Structure formats: structure tokens, C-alpha cells
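User: C-alpha cells for this one?
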Amino acid sequence: MKYFTLKENHLFSKAYRNGERAGGKYVCVYELPDYHAARLQRANPLKLRINRVGITVTKKLGAAVVRNRVKRILREAYHKACSTYEVRTGRIIVMAARPAAVGAKTGDIYDELVPAMIKLGLIRGKKEEK
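Assistant:
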């Protein structure tokens, strides 16, 4: 599923302040309805609703190489969840890495991300095999 990345600080702040939260050992997920989803849907060539996803990794976790690795792992876990399950669209999703994520593998974060997304109501069900 295609998604856009969040870049504006006010959207991250809004998700932290007003969004629902589900967390675990490696990652904390914030979810908020996207009130501009209809406008983005009209602008999309395929006319599909999309999610806007942001990933935050603080400098406390390590140097740039470590932070970028954690971001890649979070992004891959999200892609794997979207390809396995039907994910609700039209949402702002922020994933914040925790210090334990530095030594984690993609499978570990995926195993924690899916229950967090289910708790937030982002996952409808498993995709059917074709």
C-alpha cells in the first residue's frame, strides 16, 4: 500500500497530543484520523485513500548510522504488515522508536507492530491469498 511520509512538525505534535497510543518494548505507535484524506484522495491519480506515516528516532539511540538502520527496520516492518493485513486508510500514523529497537531485528519489530496496530483498530483482517 502506498503512503506519504509526514514531514511537518505540527502533524507529529497533533498525533502525540490527540492521537491514540499503543506501545511495546521496541516501538510506540500513535494513530489519528487524517482530516485531509479526502483532499489527498482527489489529488491521487488512482483516487485511493492513503495513510500518512511518520517515523521518529531520537539522538539518544545513537549515531546517524544507527538511527537510519532503525528507521529502515521500522519502515520494512510497516510494509510487511501492510502486505499481510488489510490496513485502514485515511490515517496519520506516527511510529516512535524506543531504545530497545537498536538491537532488534525486523521480525521482532514486526511481531510488536502488528498487535499495536490491531489495538488501535488499524488492521481489518488478513489479506486473502490469490
